[in-house]
Amino acid sequence: MSTSTVIRGGLVITASDETHADILMEDGRIAALAASHTPAAEALTAERTVDATGKYVIPGGVDAHTHMEMPFGGTFAADTFETGTRAAAWGGTTTIVDFAVQSVGHGLREGLDAWHAKAEGNCAIDYAFHMIVSDVNEDTLKEMDLLVEEGVTSFKQFMAYPGVFYSDDGQILRAMQRAADNGGLIMMHAENGIAIDVLVEQALARGETDPRFHGEVRKALLEAEATHRAIRLAQVAGAPLYVVHVSATEAVAELARARDDGLPVFGETCPQYLFLSTDNLAEPDFEGAKYVCSTPLRPKEHQAALWRGLRTNDLQVVSTDHCPFCFSGQKELGRGDFSKIPNGLPGVENRMDLLHQAVLDGHISRRRWIEIACATPARMFGLYPKKGTIAPGADADVVIYDPAAEQVISADTHHMNVDYSAYEGKRVTGRVETVFSRGVPVVTDRKYTGHAGHGAYTPRSTCQYLT
Ligand code: URP
Ligand code: ZN
Ligand code: ZN
Ligand code: ZN
C-alpha cells in the first residue's frame, strides 16, 4: 500500500531530540521532517493528515526479547505470533525480536526454519529472530556463521535449566569464541542452574512447594556469580556479551565493573523487575505463580539499582521477556511443586506505557525512555536506523502517544492471549493512540486496523555498538 501521511503538530521525541515537528511518511518510510508551523512544514502534503497536537510522536517500540509460542515445561507460551504481535502493536511496539529455539540433538537451521514457519504470514508488526543455542558442537558452531550472514546475529545461551537449554562453561566458551570470529553477539541467561537445582531439590524435600520458594532458591548471588563468570568467559574469548533479564543489584554491579574496565558488556532488564517484587510471588492461594519467571522477581530493594543502572547506562535496554502462560491450566501445572510452574510473564503490550510512567515518576527522562525502549535495542541488534528512530529514510514505524490519558492495566482490557495481567489494577498515565507500521496504520484512534501478515521478517546486521 503506497499511501502517504503527514502527522502534524506533535512533540517528536527520539533518543537524542525533542522537537515540535511535522512528519511526512511515504511508501513505508519517513520521507521528511520539518519544524511545525513553518513554511517547510506547510509544504509537506500527503493523502492523509493526522493531527497530533498535544501528543507525543515517538518511534515504534523495539522489544528485543519475546517468546511467542515458546515450548516450556511441557506447554507452550500462550501468545501465538498472531496474538502476540497484535498485542505488541496495541502497546506501541512495532518490532519484536523473538527467540528461535534449537533443541538438543537438532540443528540451528532446523530450529530457525520452524520459527519462520510459525511467524510467517501471521505477524501484525515486523519481526526478527535471535537463536537459542542449546547444543554446542562442531556442526552448530559452523551454522552460527551462516546464521550471522543471513541476519540472525545474536545467540542466547543458558547457564540455567540443566537438561533443557543449559550449556556448560566449555560450550559457552566455544560459542563465544565463534561469535568473536563471526561478529555475533552472545546473549546470556546468567544464573547458576546447577547450584539452583540443588537448592530446588532441598526446598521441595523440606515441603517448601509454594511459588515464593522459586524466588528463594534462585538466589541473587547465583545470578551475580553467573554474570561474573559469563563476563570472564567472554573476556577470555574476546567476545562481546549481552546479559538478558538482569534482576539483582549484585549482577548490575558485575556489569558496571566490567564496563568500567572497558569491556564490551551490555545489560537488559525488564519491566517486571522494575515494577514487581517478591511480594507478588508471595501472594496467597497460588496467585504467586502468576509471577514466576527466571531470573526471578527480587525483593523491592533491588529496583533502585536497576533504575540507577538504566540512568548510568550500566543497563542499556528494557525488553519484556514476554513469555505468557495462563494461570488456568498452565501456571497451575506447578501446584504443589513450584519447580513445575512454567517460567515467564506476559508484558509485550505494557512496556511502553510502564516506561512512560517511569518518566512521570522521575526514574528516567523522556529521551531515555525512547533510548532504552526503541533506539538502543535497534542498535544493539543491528536494526538501526531502519528501526528505533524517526529520521528521513527510517521505516515509518511511528506511534502517536497521548501523555495525558489515564488507564488502568487489566486482563479485562488487554489484548495478550493470557488470562491475567501481571500489572492488574495498576494506574498509569499515558496511552498509545495510533500506531503506524511502515506507514500503515495498525492501530487507529485506539481501534485495531492491522492484520496478520502485514508484519515482515527483518534480517539484522551485527551489533552496532562494536564497530
Ligand atoms: O522465565 C522466563 N524468563 N521465561 C522465558 C525464558 C527465558 O529464560 O528467557
Ligand atoms: Zn533434527
Ligand atoms: Zn532467560
Ligand atoms: Zn526470555
CATH architecture of the domain at 60-380: Alpha-Beta Barrel
Structural class: alpha/beta
CATH superfamily of the domain at 60-380: Metal-dependent hydrolases
CATH topology of the domain at 60-380: TIM Barrel
Portion in helices: 25-40%
> How would you sum up the global shape?
globular
Taking all Cα atoms into account, the compactness measure Rg is: 21 Å
What gap, in angstroms, lies between the N and C termini? 35 Å
Name of the top-level CATH class of the domain at 60-380: Alpha Beta
How is this fold's topology laid out?
Blueprint: E1 4-13, E2 18-26, E3 29-35, H1 39-42, E4 48-51, E5 56-59, E6 61-66, E7 71-72, E8 75-76, H2 81-90, E9 93-101, H3 108-119, E10 126-132, H4 138-150, E11 154-158, H5 169-182, E12 185-189, H6 193-205, H7 212-217, H8 220-237, E13 241-243, H9 249-260, E14 265-269, H10 271-275, H11 278-281, H12 302-312, E15 317-318, H13 351-360, H14 366-380, E16 398-408, E17 427-437, E18 440-444, E19 447-448
Parallel strand pairs: 1-4, 1-5, 6-9, 9-10, 10-11, 11-12, 12-13, 13-14, 14-15
Antiparallel strand pairs: 1-2, 2-3, 5-16, 7-8, 16-17, 17-18, 18-19
Helix pairs in contact: 4-5, 5-8, 8-9
What does this structure look like?
By secondary structure, this protein is α/β, with parallel strands linked by helices. The protein has a domain at 60-380: TIM Barrel (Alpha-Beta Barrel). It is 31% helix and 23% strand. It contains 14 helices and 19 strands. The protein has helices at residues 39-42, 81-90, 108-119, 138-150, 169-182, 193-205, 212-217, 220-237, 249-260, 271-275, 278-281, 302-312, 351-360, 366-380, and strands at 4-13, 18-26, 29-35, 48-51, 56-59, 61-66, 71-72, 75-76, 93-101, 126-132, 154-158, 185-189, 241-243, 265-269, 317-318, 398-408, 427-437, 440-444, 447-448. Strands 1, 2, 3, 4, 5, 16, 17, 18 and 19 form a nine-stranded mixed sheet that branches. Strand 9, helix 3 (108-119) and strand 10 (126-132) form a beta-alpha-beta unit. Helix 8 runs parallel beside helix 9. The protein is globular, with a radius of gyration of 21 Å. The chain starts with a strand and ends in a 19-residue tail after the last strand. The mean pLDDT is 98. One zinc ion binds at residues 65, 67, 321, 323.
